[in-house]
Design goal:
Layout lengths: L4 H13 L7 E12 L4 E6 L5 E6 L5 E4 L5 E6 L4 E6 L2 E5 L4 E5 L3 E8 L3 E7 L2 E6 L4 E6 H5 L6 E4 L8 E4 L2 E6 L11 E6 L4 E7 L6 E4 L2 E5 L3 E6 L6 E6 L12 E3 L6 E4 L4 E5 L7 E5 L4 E6 L6 E6 L3 E6 L4 E7 L17 E4 L2 E6 L4 E6 L4 E7 L4 E13 L7 H6 L4
Antiparallel strand pairs: 1-2, 1-34, 2-3, 4-5, 5-6, 6-9, 7-8, 10-11, 11-12, 12-13, 14-15, 15-16, 16-17, 18-19, 19-20, 20-21, 22-23, 23-24, 24-25, 26-27, 27-28, 28-29, 30-31, 31-32, 32-33
The structure holds zinc ion (2 copies).
One zinc ion binds next to strand 10.
């Protein structure tokens, strides 16, 4: 009998006493996290029935990023100089042939990360790098430490305060290199540093660096001459420059998103075009013309070959990433012109389960579309100006009473 057997036996008994299901249940849970454009609030909405589960008050209007695991959602409050973390309440435990799901109430965690002008956030494999535009260091920490209520971030020098980005790796980080003449200009490349801030290997030049995303084993940074592709095998991460192909018109990407379940990147390429990037192809770049200017774009993590683009005419477009073309379009909102300030309230997209959610900040609602039929199927009223949105969730097993869960013992972990 190993030392885990007793607590498991007790929890099995308690579960039976509490009237827990005897058989395994398959549970599907999805939550939306929605930040107001003007107010310091983040609402948590059940994506399956539209119920508001909680409204968290933070310090300033937030931009939202979720972790890969979905256990945490980060509320980056640039104007309030702080980053708050929300425990999504949905956690998965990998059991090899299936995943277990734990569903708890969402909660605002105690740990915050303060600094001047928090900016780009990158998380990979449970490691987080939080950038601050107003600080000459970036913070590196683990998602698990935050969930445990521990604040043990490593502060790593980035030479000078600038609008850049840091990417976390095991034992290392990749950080942007500030423009040596004027740090307020775009970074001029990227370098690998260790957690003491010491440079590892050579700087890799890439002028005009802005925009980053991960897909599969590769993290990409966009710049004016192409992409920097970062991978880590066993030692320090390696950075490779992938130049834009000569067939592309003049331009560059400055915002990237990365495919889930299929390795690709999509970048903006001027206001009304996108570029599809498959780094493994000989000709890695394919241009996609949009009918009008782009407002927001997002990948579908469930139906891997689709990404969605919302355009200023109020339409949502389904893009088939394999074909490299727009396959369906549907009107969702009134027009949202891209004239005006870049940060005016405009729709944002999130995908959860078999639905696509589009915020409509000027109408105080979220449109719900069926992802397969690609048609609006409902809407959720949200007071104020619902703006940034991320979704967390999935399905898993909740094991019932007496059968317990024997392979927890084999894996040596109980939950
Ligand atoms: Zn299990
Ligand atoms: Zn930026």
């Amino acid at each position: 009998m190993n030392k885990l057997a007793l607590p498991l036996a007790i929890s099995a008994i308690l579960s039976v006493m509490a009237g827990g299901a005897v058989a395994d249940d398959n549970v599907n849970a999805w939550r939306l996290f929605v930040a107001d454009h003007d107010k310091p609030t983040v609402k948590v909405i059940d994506a399956l029935d539209g119920d508001t589960l909680n409204t968290f008050t933070v310090k300033g209007p937030a931009s939202l990023s979720r972790s890969e695991s979905g256990a945490t959602v980060f509320a980056i409050q640039g104007s309030a100089n702080t980053v708050s973390v929300i425990g999504s309440g949905i956690a998965f435990h990998d059991h090899g042939d299936h995943a277990d799901i734990d569903v708890d109430p969402p909660k605002l965690l105690s740990v915050t990360f303060d600094g001047k002008k928090p900016g780009h956030f990158v998380e990979r494999q449970g490691k987080v790098a939080q950038w601050f535009d107003g600080e000459s260091h970036a913070l590196f920490f683990s998602e698990q430490a935050v969930l445990d209520g521990k604040k043990d971030a490593k502060s790593v020098s980035v030479v000078a305060a600038h609008h850049g980005v840091a990417v976390p790796y095991d034992g290392y980080g990749v950080v942007s290199i500030p423009n040596p003449e004027d740090a307020s200009k775009r970074p001029i490349g990227a370098r690998v540093v260790d957690m003491a801030g010491k440079k590892v290997g050579n700087d890799v030049a890439c002028a005009g660096l802005h925009g980053s995303a991960g897909s599969g084993d590769t993290y990409a940074l966009a710049c004016s001459t192409g992409l920097l592709l970062i991978t880590q095998k066993n030692a320090a991460p390696e950075i490779k420059h992938l130049p834009y192909s000569a067939s592309l018109p003049e331009g560059s990407a400055s915002t990237l998103i990365g495919g889930k379940g299929m390795q690709y990147f999509i970048g903006n390429y001027g206001p009304d075009r996108l570029v599809l990037i498959d780094p493994t192809e000989a000709d890695s770049f394919r241009l996609v013309q949009l009918p009008v200017r782009r407002v927001h774009f997002a990948v579908d993590p469930v139906r891997s070959k689709f990404a969605y683009v919302f355009t200023e005419d109020g339409k949502l477009h389904q893009m088939d990433v394999i074909k490299g073309e727009i396959t369906k379009s549907v009107r969702v909102t009134e027009p949202y012109s891209m004239d005006g300030h870049w940060n005016d309230p405009r729709p944002r997209i999130a995908v959860a389960d078999d639905k696509i959610f589009v915020t409509d900040p000027l109408k105080s609602k979220i449109h719900v579309l069926d992802a397969v039929a690609f048609k609006e199927s409902g809407e959720i009223s949200v007071e104020g100006r619902p703006f940034n949105i991320v979704a967390v969730g999935g399905s898993g097993k909740v094991h019932g009473g007496e059968h317990g869960h024997e392979h927890h013992n084999e894996e040596g972990k109980a939950h």
